[in-house]
Each structure stands twice: as C-alpha cells, then as structure tokens.
Amino acid sequence: METRPLGDTGHDSTVTTFGAIALNWLEQEGADQLVEHVLDYGVNHFDVAPTYGDAELKLGPKLRQHREEIFLGCKTQERTYEGAWRKLERSLNRLGVEKIDLYQVHGLEYDEELDAITGDDGALAAFREAKEQGLIDHVGLTSHGDPGLILDALDRIDDLESVMFPLNPVVAGKDDDEYDYEAVLARAEAENIGTLGIKAFAGGSWPSTDELPEADRPFANWYRPVTAPDEIRERFDFAAAQGLTSVISAGDPKLVTMILEAAADYDGMDEAAQRSLVERVRHDDSPVPEQLHH
Amino acid sequence: MDVPKTVATALDDRSVAGKRCLEAGAGVGNATAGLLANGADRVYAVTNDRDHARTTRRRVGEVDDSTAGDRLAVLEADLRAVPLPDDSVDVITAHGLCNVLEPAALSAVAKELSRVAAPGAGLVVDDYDPIPDDAAVGDLFAVENAASELARGRPALTFYPAAFLRRFFAGHGWAFERERTLLEPVPWTESHVAAHADRAVAVAADCPGESGEALAAAARRLAAEIESESVGRMYGLAFRLPV
C-alpha cells in the first residue's frame, strides 16, 4: 500500500489509516481478526480514542502483539492540563502500551477551547510534558468544526505535527468559508504538517430519529455512509487525490474491507473525474430545480 | 450560491476581474455566479426563459457579497438579438449553451455574440462531446429530440464535438486559445435524467396524433430504467477576439 510522509514526524503513513472505532462494534475475537485483516493489507497507522466505547480495550491485545508495525494515534477531549494527563494515562493503561506515537487534541470546536488548551493550565502543557517523558512522540489536533478555527489553531500551536479534518466531494463542492477545509489542507501542506482525512465516506446525514430511530440505522457511523464498493472506491480515490497524507477508514466494520481494497488499489484520480464526482454529489443535493446541464 | 467546479475550472485561467461580462443562456445562473465571484464589474445574464431569469436573480440574491446584485443585469432576450450595443462586452460565457442550439440557431447566436464582443474580448464555450453510442442517456435524449422535432421541427439537443465548435468559432473570427476537460465522465444524475424526461414529456404533449403519447411514455420508462448514468465528456474551450 502507498505510504506518504506524515508531515515532519518522520513516519510514512499508509494512504489509509485504520479508524479503530470499528472494533467497538465487535466482540474481542472479531476485533482481533479485524486488526490482523487490516495489517495484512499493510496498513501501518491506527487511530483510536477513549470515547470510542471499548475500542481501546479491544485494540489492546493485537496492538501489543504487533506494536512495532503500528503507528498509534490516540486523542483526548480534555482541555485542561489535569484532564489531559488523566486521560493520557488512562488510554496508555487501557491500550496496554508504554507510548502513543501521535496524541491529538480531539474534536476542537470553539474558540474558547483553543484558548483553554493553549493556556498555561491547558491540555497542550500536559502533552508537552508527556512528550518530554517519552509517553508520546508527536502532537496533533482533530476537528470537524469551523475551518477558520483550525487555521487559528495551526497559527497558535507551534509544535503541531498533524491535523485531522473532514474532506469529501460534498464539502469540496461548497464555497462557503464554513466548508473550506481545502484551505486547511493547503496551509498544512505549506507548513509540512501531516493531514488526516475523516468523513471521506459520508453520504449525508441520517434521517431524523422520528423517521428512522437510531436503533434501526443499518450502519454504526455518525453519518449515513456510502456503501456500494464503487462508491467507496471513488470516495477513497477522491480523498487521497486531494493530497491528504492518509484517509481514515469509516467507523463501521462492514465497510472496512471495501476501504482497504480501495486503498490497496489506489493509483490517483484525474481532475476531470474528481470534478465529475463533486458535480454528481452537488446535483443529488441541489435545491435548484430543473437543471439540464452541469 | 456555490460556483460549480465546472464553471470555476472553465474560468480559472480567464481574466474576469473588472470586466464587462455576458453569460449567454443563463440557465440557472451557474456561470453568472462564477463571473461575479471572480470580480466581474458587470454581468449581463441573457436568457429567453422567464423561469431561468427568475432563478438566476434569486440565486444571486443569496450571495453574501452585497455588491453582486448591483453588478448583475438579467436580460430576458433572444440570443439572436442581444439588447446590447456593438463591442460592449469583454468576456462571454456559453456554458452548456450550444447543445440546446440547433445549427441554424448556433450560427445566428455566434454572429450576435461576435457583434457585442469588444476587440480583445474572451469567449468561453463549455459543452458536451456527442454522447457515446452505448450510453443509456443517449436513448432518453433521442426521445427528447424526436418529440421536439415532431412538435417544433428542430431537435432539443445537439451535442457538438469540441473540434467542431473550435473550428466553428474560428470561422466567426475567434482565435482559439485552449481546450480542457471539465468533466469525464459526465454525471447525469437522477435530477438531470428526471429533468430531461420531464422536458420530453412536456414537448411530446405538442406532438401531432398518437406519437406524443408514445414518446412521453418512452421518456418516462427510460428515466425510470436509467435513474442516473456517468458517461461522456464535458469540455471547455477558450477563444479570444483579435484586437
């Protein structure tokens, strides 16, 4: 599988990263099998979080067995020094490892949070101490929030080495600043910060729970994913062709093999085909009536 | 109002800022949006379709940029008689226009566009190569054309090869500058297929005798069967009028 340098970390990540939340939906035996399956494809970057149910615990056994083959990303939603230290130690315990390769600020959403994590008593102070103590190697940030806020974070956090954000043909087709994750990608590339793409396989929102109760959703994802092999493939190709370091696999284990296949076969996507995909999605979701043309 | 990637790509190497622009055949105003976003001083969006004129005005009204409305003039007019003086525009876009013009109309429109273009003006022509023979949407377009021929004596759609329009506009005095591929394959989505089927059904109502009903039924059946299809190529040509 193709690998790309993850910014200045010195690690070359495979073009897909295993989103280990998928393990949460499996029993331990199935989780072990899925990790072996993912490793068989050569995937070398895993991403997990303490908020993903049992995913850390279920990843643990195979992670420890294959520790040298896996670049491990984990994250915390804690914004304070104390909270971040507590969650880091908890994750290390639950995963059963001595070090996390990439520790990320998880789900940055508000300006106040950016103030908090960068403050003297903020989470990043804990990250830096942990780094000095050899408990983590690199510092990252994840957000599905306002691209402007992510750009601010890139400005204000000097030692940021990776950033994780949404990128797919739906957001690429929208011009408003609130969807301009391409600006984040461009800035990160310019500053040699690794880029990790999420929501590459998002098809749209789930219907309201009145219409479709949560228990009746056919997939575990937070969004309604695309599910056909061809759609998965073109979504993967699109995300990878934007220049992301790596595309995070979708959170439902039923989709993982299709994504691994797409990643293994990835050999670029020409620009006319990328635009074709953006156009298709735009029209499927367009409020403008009677469009005969593109 | 989002500028479609096709339009953004067709315009990204064109000088638009501060220019007087004409969108020939405004449709839903896609190229107008791109011209305004790229800083056009003025955009004349010309269409002979009242609904399209209304849609274009409404969509531009959604733009954040408050000057956009002031910079836009939607003109309801026939492109064979554009209500603008000679040499009065610097940039012309024909985005998805030529395929709705049969050869006679295309000739008349090209002549008129050349008249209103100032020396040194740019022309952007974006359209579709002929639909491949084995494409299902080709069958739907054939039914739409058959209905249009019977009802009005002309086809609804004519897909001109890029090389044809390149030479055709050269014949009207435009120097060819470049060609690029905007879409390949072209995504004929459910909404496109449904819109073409609706159009075929509407035109079929004007067909003489029983042929209209048969064509309308064929259009509905094909739309249901096809749903959507990605096929063919949309190209972008750019020309300049010599000074």
Protein architecture, described:
By secondary structure, chain A is α/β, with parallel strands linked by helices. Chain A has one domain (3-284): TIM Barrel. Helix content of chain A is 41%, strand content 18%. Chain A has eleven helices and twelve strands. In chain A, strands 3-4-5-6-7-8-9-12 form an eight-stranded parallel barrel, surrounded by six helices. Chain A has a two-stranded antiparallel ribbon with strand order 1-2. A two-stranded antiparallel ribbon of chain A has the order 10-11. In chain A, helix 3 (81-95) crosses helix 5 (123-132) and helix 6 runs parallel beside helix 8 (181-190). The longest helix of chain A is centred in the N-terminal third of the chain and has 15 residues, at 81-95. Chain B is α/β, with parallel strands linked by helices and 243 residues long. Chain B has nine helices and nine strands. In chain B, strands 3-2-1-4-5-9-6 form a seven-stranded mixed β-sheet, with helices on both faces. A two-stranded antiparallel sheet of chain B has the order 7-8. In chain B, helix 8 packs antiparallel against helix 9 (211-226). The longest helix of chain B has 17 residues, at 136-152. Chain B is globular, with a radius of gyration of 18 Å. Chain A binds chain B through residues 172-176, 270-273, 275-280, 282-284, 286, 288-294, and chain B through 1-6, 9, 27-28, 30, 37, 51, 55, 59, 95-96, 99-100, 181-187, 189-192, 195-196, 198-199, 228, 230, 233-234.
